[in-house]
Amino acid sequence: MAVYTDIGEDELSAFLRDYDIGELLSYKGIAEGVENSNFLLHATGGSFILTLYEKRVNPADLPFFIGLMRHLSSRGISCPLPVERRDGSDTGALAGRPAAIVTFLEGMWMRRPTVEHCREVGAALAALHLAGEGFGLTRRNALSVDGWRPLWDKARGRADEVEPGLAGEVERDLVELETSWPKDLPTGIIHADLFPDNVFFLGKRLSGLIDFYFACNDLLAYDVAVCINAWCFEKDHAFNLTKGMALLAGYVSVRPLSAAEAAALPRLAHGAALRFMLTRLYDWLNTPAGSLVVKKDPLEYLRKMRFHRRVASAEEYGLRLQEATA
Predict the structure, then answer these.
(1) What angle do CA 284, 211, 146 make, to 5 degrees?
(2) CA-to-CA distance for 195 and 153, rounded, in angstroms?
(3) Which of 315, 304, 323, 224 shows the shortest CA–CA distance to 268?
(4) In this structure, what CATH number is given to the domain that contains residue 62?
(5) Lowest mean pLDDT among 110-124, 250-264, 292-306
(6) Which of these three, 75, 103, 131, is where a domain ends?
(7) Is the pLDDT confidence value at 58 over 90?
(8) Which of 228, 233, 316, 324 would you call most buried, defined as having the most Cβ atoms within 10 angstroms of its Cβ?
(9) What is the tally of structural domains in the chain?
(10) Of 262, 285, 246, 250, whose CA–CA distance to 160 is shortest?
(11) What is the Cα–Cα distance from 147 to 139, expressed in whole angstroms?
C-alpha cells in the first residue's frame, strides 16, 4: 500500500455520499507498499480501506480483482470484501482516479515472522489456490517471465548507479531464465504478492489476506516461490531453512506439489527474486519526489538471486520430497 495521490476531506466526503457507510469521522494515508494510494477510513458505519488505483493498474482489470475477492470469500478465504455503492457498482472516481472501498480486516502484519507464522502462510496459500478454482475471469500475469525484459529495458541504463556491475549480472540471469523457464506445470489463480505486509495475524493465528492487485493466472508453484523469497530469509539476507520447512509443510498439508513442481522450485524461486528486484529497481530509480511511499531496496533481492543460483533441489528449501509430492 502507498499514497501517490492525496485527497481533501471535502472531496472524500462527497465521494462517500454514494456509499451506505455513514459519515466520515477520520482518514489517514497508508505509506507502506508501492502500487496504489490507500487510506484507512473511519466512518460511523465502521472502518474501511479506500484504494485509488494509480497508473500501473489497468482499469479493465478491476472487475477481476473485485470479483476475485468476492469469489475467495465465498469459498472460505478471509479477505477484504468490496463495498457496493448505492447504485450497485463497485468502483467510482476520486481525485481523477478509479477508486473502491473494501472492508477492514482485524489483525496486524508480522515484521518478524516466526516459524509458526510461516506454516500458517503456507497452508493459507494452498487454500487460496484451491479456492480460486472455478473463478470465471482470467488475468495474464504481466510480471511473469515474458514481462521482465520490457521492465529491465527501462532500468538497465541506470542499473550500475545502484551497484557497479549490476547491469551485466541481471542481464545474464534474465537470459538464462528466459530460455529455461518451467512450462506445463499446474496453473490457476495466484496471489503473486503474498508478502508479510499482505497477511494479517491475531497472535499466531492468520486472520486474513489482503492486497489482491497483482493476482492473476499463472503457475501455482511460482506463488510458492514468491512466498519462499518473502518469508524465509532473515534481515541479514540468510535463508532460514527451518522457516522454509514450515512454509512448505504448511502448503503441502493442504495441496501436495507434483514432482515436476518440486523439481522446478529452484528455478521459480530464482525468477521470483529477479521479478521483485526488477520492480524495486524501477521504483527506486523512478518514484516521484514527495510521494508518501516507502521505496524498497532492490539489492535485497539481488542477494536472494545469488542464493537461488546455487540451489540444486527443492530439498534445500526444506521440502521433504517423499512426503510432499503427489
Answers:
(1) 60
(2) 26
(3) 224
(4) 3.30.200.20
(5) 292-306
(6) 103
(7) no
(8) 228
(9) 2
(10) 285
(11) 14
